[in-house]
Write a structure and sequence with these properties.
It is a single chain. The strands form two sheets. A six-stranded mixed β-sheet has the order 5-6-8-9-10-7. The chain has a five-stranded mixed β-sheet with strand order 1-4-3-2-11, sandwiched between helices. It has 325 residues and is an alpha/beta fold. The chain has ten helices and eleven strands. The chain has two domains: 149 residues, Udp-n-acetylmuramoylalanyl-d-glutamate--2,6- Diaminopimelate Ligase, Chain: A, domain 1 (3-Layer(aba) Sandwich); 148 residues, Udp-n-acetylmuramoylalanyl-d-glutamate--2,6- Diaminopimelate Ligase, Chain: A, domain 1 (3-Layer(aba) Sandwich), CATH 3.40.1390.30. Helix 2 links the parallel strand 2 and strand 3. It comes from Calycina marina.
Length: 325
């Protein structure tokens, strides 16, 4: 009987993503990172990987149509232990369909948040203006700042000495809130709008001029991490009503972009190019374990790393009277 194996390309992708975002960085107290679905290799599957924030039915349809070997989903589609796999549950149906098609699923989640140069550093680059430094067409200037981790990893793996969750930026010269908003909306993919909360004693027409000297940053849902920080601005994906109210009562401001909108631009701007470079390096240096010479030769012939075109935040902002949506 022949041995059942995953696609050789899937094995390469998993190895590459683990080097970029070691699983030991993930918060195992609640998270479920790693290889969540290892599908048997099927003929006709391509040497291609699809990056997404959420693995929905629409994203699964996209991967099946593209014949991708692997899906890297930032949020784990399996978050708690499964007692069965049935067609009665939409997420389980997605997993069964992907397994049938030979498409594996990996989730790095909080390992990406904590990694140096990961998601929270990406958000820090956006609000500081560093993100725009190499864009010759951008008129956005960067602001000098210090950057610190909110919750450091106690025993990080080699090469990840500055790993940890959340970031705090401090500006020696305060930056107006309006400038920070412009950086955020452009850096997160030219968002049409974000949610902003400011202290209620600030008069209309003056809110954009609020001086910000310090920012607490957390991708996704940041209330638990940012709530007690002594900073001028909380920047995250989402806060509850009461978390935002508590912040503005204390004289702080809040910017929320919707949960996954705070994460999605990272895929195209950082994860995709880094994964391509890592895979190319592994192929060139023959660093892929448990592969035959034929498998390695096949990979040397080329592969693709793509970002999902259908992945999006479930919420949209609809203006009063807006039509055509």
């Amino acid at each position: 009987m022949s041995e059942t194996k995953a696609s050789p390309f899937t094995s390469a992708v998993v190895g590459a993503i683990r080097r970029l975002y070691p699983e030991s960085l993930a918060d195992k107290s609640f998270d479920n990172t790693g290889l969540l679905l290892e599908a048997p290799h099927r003929p006709g599957i391509r040497n291609s990987v699809l990056l997404t924030i959420d693995l929905t039915k629409a994203v699964a349809d996209e991967a099946i149509l593209r014949k991708d070997s692997t899906i890297i989903t930032y949020h784990p589609i399996i978050f708690r232990g499964l007692k069965s796999l049935t067609l009665a549950n939409t997420q389980q149906t997605t997993l069964l369909r992907l397994a049938q098609e030979g498409i594996s699923v990996y989730s790095p989640h909080t390992a990406v948040d904590a990694a140096p140069g990961g998601l929270n550093d990406f958000l820090a680059d956006i609000v500081s203006g560093d993100f725009y430094r190499n864009n010759v067409n951008s008129r956005i200037e960067s602001s000098p700042h210090t950057r610190n981790v909110i919750t450091p990893i106690e025993t990080p793996p080699t090469g990840c000495d500055t790993a940890g969750y959340g970031r705090i930026l401090r500006f020696p010269t305060a930056v107006p809130l309006g400038i920070l908003l412009s950086r955020i909306t452009q850096g997160l993919g030219n968002l049409d709008a974000v949610s902003v909360a400011v202290p209620q004693w600030i008069p209309q027409g003056e809110k954009h001029n609020i001086n910000i000297s310090s920012i607490g940053i957390c991708a996704g849902s940041g209330g638990h991490m940012l709530g007690n920080l002594d900073v001028d601005l909380l920047f995250t994906g989402e806060l509850s009503h009461h978390e935002a109210l508590a912040a503005i009562e204390q004289g702080r401001c809040c910017i929320t972009a919707f949960h996954s909108n705070s994460e999605r631009a990272f895929l195209a701007n950082v994860m995709r190019p880094r994964l391509l470079v890592q895979l190319e390096k592994m192929v060139e240096q023959q660093e892929i374990d448990e592969m035959t010479d034929r498998d390695k030769s096949d990979l040397a012939g080329g592969f693709e790393v793509a970002v999902s075109k259908v992945d999006r935040d479930p919420f949209e902002i609809i203006a009063a009277g807006q039509t055509g949506w």
